[in-house]
Amino acid sequence: MDQRLPSESSELNLTPTRPDEELARSRNIERPFNPNHGRAPSRILSDRFIPSRTGSNFALFHLSPERPGDTDYSRRLRRALFPPPTPENGSDLINPPNRNIFRYQTVTRRPSHSVSLPESYDDNPEVNHSAVNAPRKIPKSPYKILDAPGLQDDFHLNLVDWSMHNVLAVGLGNCVYLWNANSDMVTRLCDLGIDDSVCSVGWAQGGTHLAVGTSNGIVQIWDASCCKKVRSMKGHRSRVGALAWSSTLLSSGSHDKSIFQRDIRAQDNYVSEQRGHNSEVCGLKWSYDDLQLASGGNDNRLLVWNQNSTQPMLRFSEHTAAVKAIAWSPHVHGLLASGGGTEDGCIHFWRTTTNSHLSCIDTGSSVCNLVWSKNVNELVSTHGHTENEIIVWRYPHYPAMSKLATLEGHIDDEVLYLAISPDGRTIVTGAADETLRFWNVFPSSISQSRATETVAPSGRTTIR
């Protein structure tokens, strides 16, 4: 079957290459140049990537993990994880191993660089974690790189999210693509057309439905299991750059300064409206108990709302730049972290249960994203001007923060996007260099953090 990757103006070049050409490419891999991006193409040497089967959904689909090379097995796995395209859903399915869409090249592995953690790993008295007896190494290089042509260079958008079923959703231009981390399969979920573009994506907690915020102010709900649009909800007058799910509601934040609470079971476009920001809403996160919603805006404000309130219960104005980075601690109830943009560069910690400001650390760069590990009391921040780096932090009770590792990959571009894998070990970062980079930064559990982690083989894959 002729399988194609969606493109606005050109078709795939599937011409086979000679072995000597493949060998030459393996020693000097160049990412295709995007003439609209305004940057010279980057070069990178990479190792062969071997996908991990940890956390795969074999039991869910009644599949055996044995004999992954078997032809019948491969067909059943593809049908289970992503249904074949049909005229009704209009989706496009790409099988990387057969169509050179994802190409793995093998070169000499580069030496790993890692940082060792102190033996006393987590001294926060509020979190009852056992001490680590041996240092843990955090790899300083990404183990996998995917090219993402069309990934927008916009601080205020949220274009990457990772579902509980291990599927990564990415908004590229006017399309949303799904990359399955278990099977390495890629699916084009939707195409908004030339008059619209993707501004945000967000998986529901169950991991089956994906919300898509558009530049026209529409919020679409898609069932990723069958690549079908469930509904389209109006209300906002301009782009929807922030989305957040609770157990029952979908919250959407817009450039029109409003936040809408939507119940996809109800016929109405939204069930309530919240107004408290004086500029674009660019950050939204529900607490783990679904009782509080934190919102950040381009007005430098951080607001906290009750589940059904129309006015914020808490207002924090310590930031001096836009607040997009927001993260609730999964370990301590009511512990909230927020980061400010270029003119701020600070990470603040708040206790919403007592309306108190706990601490602040100046990172020296704009804070684009924050995510807390669910396995250990650590968090990751991604940064823009001027360092464009990724930092892994330990959060004890005192002192406020300690830096565990600094990761550099998107050297010349702001690290605008961040998501964490469902097992809590891996993060993926995206930047204006049009790449997605995967990092192993957290242990799978406290007990396993005692073992020394090694750098996984590097790999670069390309969507052409």
TrEMBL record:
Ranges of biased composition (kind: Polar residues)? 1-16
GO MF annotation: an example: ubiquitin ligase activator activity
**Pathway field:** Protein modification; protein ubiquitination
Region (Disordered) location? 1-43, 113-134
UniProt keyword annotation of Methyltransferase present: no
Tell me the Gene3D superfamilies matching this sequence. Answer: YVTN repeat-like/Quinoprotein amine dehydrogenase (2.130.10.10)
Which chain positions lie within coiled-coil regions? none
Q: Which residues form the signal peptide?
A: none
Residue ranges annotated for the CDC20/Fizzy WD40 domain, each copy included:
146-439
Which keywords, in A-to-Z order, does the entry hold? Answer: Cell cycle, Cell division, Mitosis, Repeat, WD repeat
User: Where is this chain compositionally biased, Basic and acidic residues type?
Assistant: 18-30
This protein's source sits in the domain of life called: Eukaryota
Extract one GO cellular component term from the record.
Answer: anaphase-promoting complex
Biological process terms in GO annotation: anaphase-promoting complex-dependent catabolic process; cell division; positive regulation of anaphase-promoting complex-dependent catabolic process; protein ubiquitination
Q: Where are the WD repeats?
A: 191-232, 274-315, 413-449
The answer to whether UniProt assigns keyword Cell membrane to this entry is: no
Family classification: Belongs to the WD repeat CDC20/Fizzy family.
Tell me what this protein is called. CDC20/Fizzy WD40 domain-containing protein
